[in-house]
Amino acid sequence: MLRTALPEIITDTLPGPKAQALIDRRAQAVPAAIRCVYPVAIARGEGAMLEDLDGNRFLDWIGGVGVLNIGYSHPEVIDAVKAQAEQYFHGMFNIVTHEGYVALAEKLAQLAPVRGTSKKVFFANSGAEADENAVKIARAYTGRPNLITFSGAFHGRTLLTMTLTAKKAYTTGLGPLATGVYRAQFPYLYRSPDGLSEEEVFAACLQSLQDVFEEGTPADQVAALILEPLQGEGGFLPAPLPWVKALRKVCDDHGILLIADEVQSGFCRTGRMFASEYWQEAGAAPDILTAAKSIAAGLPISAIVARSEIMDAVPAGTIGGTYCGNPLACAAALKTIELMERDDLAARSRQIGQIVTARCAQWQTKFPLLGDVRGLGAMIGLEFVKDPVTKAPNGDLVSALVQECARHGLLIENAGRWGQVVRFLAPLTITDHQLHCGLDILENALKTCTQ
Predict the structure, then answer these.
(1) Pair 224, 138: CB distance under 8 Å
(2) Which of 2, 82, 215, 441 lies at a C-alpha separation of 20 to 30 Å from 399?
(3) Would 123 be classed as within a structural domain?
(4) In a domain, 70, yes or no
């Protein structure tokens, strides 16, 4: 059974002949800007494993970049989607009310750690759409135009969200960008100046926010601050709780809403259903939460959650859309959340994180170029450097590791400003045997690539 199999490469080359043929067709039919560096053309997937067209089997530690927290092709989700498909595929929620949309909204209102006792939820199709809608809601509620985002942020590829995103390689040749967006400093503790304590780093980052108020936009013109509880593309950087608590106070002092972008960090990835539960426990719950990726095990849907008074400030007709809250996606999401709660995947996430970080701690003594290991639960980043003293980023090594691991049946992906971080996003349904096998492949790749 593929679900419990281990990686196995059976072709003499990668890609194999059938995969190569499809990849060649891709090159002719699809824009080159939609890049792919992996020698894989998928035929089927189960759990944390996928099989390509030539029968090669790969252990997937990318999981659709965080989409597959319950793995590929979960049989109970398949059954739920089939059952819904036999009733109807589509029912635009602006036209007809359907049970799945309402039930999913009720469930997420119950789960999401946003401020308020009465909460409302609506759906879009992608993480970027969720973030755009969160901004629209914040502007409608506050009557203010401007936004503050942070260094290292990634919020999407639409006009507004690529403006919010820090890495401007995602905007090459696509300007002009949206207006009203300002950027403050996110605390990157591993790369903070030598000699600074954590408290001093937090103070410097808060000062950068004050500088925005002084030199960019007055605080009373800011609708919202938006940040990821654990930055994804920025390098798998957890937002330190003392800093988040300070941001929460700044927002409260100035009437600014706090938006938690949980597109990648949500749905048990960080050891909680949502990473901002850690914020809530510290007394710093967000006002608006956005979620997507693993919400429906691979079907496209995203969610925006806020307390009722915020949601009800939005003018009629300004939110929603044709496919938002599609019945098939809602059915998949309801079953996915049920499975996450039933099987306690949040606890499994913490367990996986402990196994991975313990192994990585051993590697740090063997491989000095592994500069930092960080994360929450099973959302873990491994940062590689050229020198442990200078901490010069080593994107070349990570690129080599990606290819070397793929040759042995393990799929990993980079992150970070310089591509210097290996991100760990394995499905939470991965078996211990598969997990240790993948760690062995990565360790052997480290030996090969650092010789």
Answers:
(1) yes
(2) 2
(3) yes
(4) no
The two three-digit tokens of residue 450, written as one number: 């650092």
Tokens of 237: 């950087």
User: Contact 151/183 with Cβ under 8 angstroms?
Assistant: yes
Same domain, residue pair 85 and 44: no
Helix, coil or strand: residue 247: helix
Contact 235, 417 (CB under 8 A): yes
Q: Identify whether 71 is part of a domain.
A: no
Whole-model pTM: value is: 0.97
What element of type H or E holds 306?
Answer: strand 302-307
In a domain? residue 66: no
Which residue range is the domain that position 230 belongs to? 79-342
Digit-coded pLDDT (tens) for 142-166: 999 999 999 999 999 999 999 999 9
From residue 45, give the alpha-carbon distance in Å to each of 48, 70, 80, 427.
Answer: 8, 12, 18, 12
DSSP 35: -
Give the Cα-Cα-Cα angle 225, 229, 230 (nearest 5 degrees). 130
